[in-house]
Write a structure and sequence with these properties.
Blueprint lengths: L1 H19 L4 H16 L3 H10 L5 H5 L5 H12 L6 H15 L3 H10 L3 H10 L3 H14 L13 H11 L4 H12 L7 H5 L6 H7 L4 H14 L20 H6 L4 H14 L4 H12 L4 H14 L9 H6 L8 H14 L6 H11 L6 H14 L6 H12 L3 H4 L6 H8 L9 H7 L4 H15 L6 H11 L10 H12 L3 H17 L2 H4 L2 H8 L6 H10 L5 H14 L6 H13 L4 H14 L6 E2 L3 E2 L4 E2 L1 H14 L22 E2 L1 E5 L9 E7 L12 E8 L2 E2 L4 E5 L4 E3 L6 E7 L8
Parallel strand pairs: 5-11
Antiparallel strand pairs: 1-4, 2-3, 5-8, 6-7, 6-9, 10-11
Helix pairs in contact: 1-3, 2-3, 5-6, 6-7, 7-8, 7-9, 9-10, 14-16, 14-36, 16-17, 16-18, 17-18, 18-20, 20-22, 21-22, 21-23, 22-25, 23-25, 25-27, 27-29, 28-29, 28-30, 29-30, 29-32, 30-32, 32-34, 33-34, 34-36, 35-36
Length: 741
Amino acid sequence: MVKVGKAIAFAQEYAKRQSEDAPFDELMELVQQIVAFHMQHNAEPEAVDLLMEVEDLDLLVEHTDKTNFKRTCLYLNSSAKYLPGPDDNLVLDIAYMIYMKFEEFPRALQIALYLDNMQYVKQIFTTCHDLLLKKQFCYILARHGITFELDEEMCADDEEREGLQEIINNAKLSEGYLTLARDIEVMEPKSPEDIYKAHLLDGRASAGASMDSARQNLAATFVNAFVNAGFGQDKLMTVASEASSGSSSTNWLYKNKEHGKTSAAASLGMILLWDVDSGLAQIDKYFHSTDTPVIAGALLGVGIVNCGVKNDCDPALALLAEYVDREDPAIRIGAIMGLGLAYAGAQSEQIRSKLIPILNDAKASLDVIAFTAISLGLVYVGSCNEDIAQAIIFALMDRSESELGEPLTRLLPLGLGLLYLGKQESVEATAEVSKTFNEKIRKHCDMTLLSCAYAGTGNVLKVQHFLGQCAQHLEKGETFQGPAVLGIAMVAMAEELGLEMAIRSLEHLLQYGEQNIRKAVPLALGLLCISNPKVNVMDTLSRLSHDSDTEVAMAAIVSLGLIGAGTNNARIAGMLRNLSSYYYKEPSLLFCVRIAQGLVHLGKGLLTLSPYHSERFLLSPTALAGLVTLLHACLDMKAVILGKYHYILYFLVLAMQPRMLMTVDENLKALPVPVRVGQAVDVVGQAGRPKTITGFQTHTTPVLLSAGDRAELATEKYIPLSPILEGFVILKENPEYRDDQ
């Protein structure tokens, strides 16, 4: 109490003098002395609190030393989440300065990425002269999924620079992922039947499931793609030609009806994820097809293979560019969506000049325009690009009355929102313009823009605003409450406390909301707990999956897949198996169950869809953009996912990342070392050197990390170059290590 009282007393005195224009020199002298004392006596949080109250955090930098800077910055980082803007960024700026002062570069880089400040990132590369550390920075940048070009200032030697750029481009991701798969011994391809496990159910379900219908085959296509994602082999699409009898992969392709073939051909891209060379070689055969949907799928597959991986020769652009202006809308969508996936976050001029004309093309069909808006939103995610915003706004204004009622039209405001993802007040000018739209889409656009702009910020006022929008009871036909409900989840996912509160608020919406709110609630829960199956949310979704309203039930089933994505969670897998027998006569619901089953076993349990990484500190914009696009599409399941646009499910590839810790040596070769993996413990402001993990087990790398896990090295022999053990971590030998023997 004493310390709080002291800070408050100072704050009151400071405010009083501020209002009276009285001098506060002697007050600040006193503050100087108190801060110096606190910093020398392990009371860093008190010093920080005091300086925040008198608005003079800059003093902190001179008072930190080697012994206390880590604790100070830890406190600054975690308090930033609960401060209103622009104070939060000021606090992080100070933490960045302190980290740079003590050359704690990897931590500084994380703050630079959190602030989305590329000048800081450049400064870190130019200040640090250790090549190994720079390689570690590149791994962090690659995991964050941003496009970053190194120049001569950041790395003078051409050969070294090429090596670093290759890491940023994620060229080694596929190799690392397969190393993990071999280590855990899951290379054996799985078929959809292995996932459905129909033999565990009683008779009636398996009887219904044996029908060879197009919808069942389409579901199997997706399950197969999700489960074998990135493994490069499966039992449907990549089967080696048995005695060259026209290989069975083409056979599976033709077990899908018209637009189903698009998803089937594209699924090959998912199976060969991140492996650009062999991926393009295998997809190539579909380009020679005479069947339009197959070509469309091949184009999309090229985009999927290149997702998250950059390549110097830009194969995706070279292959897809010429198809963008074809006559056929299916082919155009394949090429446009492919470009969106391959260049997400790249802010590529070439793609902008290629796609903007389509938005204003009077001859282009609505679906082509909708996918163009989304792809531009993905490529320029969070860039606040004016030209694209204008083009999408004009495209929205050109829509006719009847078109404004179409579910696909609602992807246009989403494309606009993605441009401002996480950029807060930068969206205001565009939001003002959206108030002039036709009233059919006006509120929908407003909610979508706000939810994107404040995504991942934890802004309490915005959550209240969305809850207020959801409190209105409306006639049928109003769509804006769906994006508002998703908005609650997008804003509140930023930190654990807000997340728990949002889950409780969503419970209330379920009880009192109309149908258009209730069908969005499961999707919001799915986003809040993505790849992190919390028991209470699992139970809520399980209850909703038997809801009398089919749309609510479908959303709940898909969300069960999302919260269990890549976890192989046995309880969710059991729920979904029971649902598959419960809904065996309802093809639409069964389709959703299958998709969810595929998601739970995503990458055989090696992948995650969580857009957060680095101990839940950083949010990857492209990953969130992919998730939000899918969730918006799921607001109208019947028209989109169950219609002919099921390939929207492939937007999930933007969020797919291996949930691994892979330790490598100085030559970037895998280096197995013992690590302790356990539940992370929050140690901010605690005295002494508390343990950062609890209930740990010791494994040898590479290891899998679940949601909320943290790893630490169990050996003194090596020093990790990144303070956070996730993804690829470079180890260097500890020069002071002596073997006991």
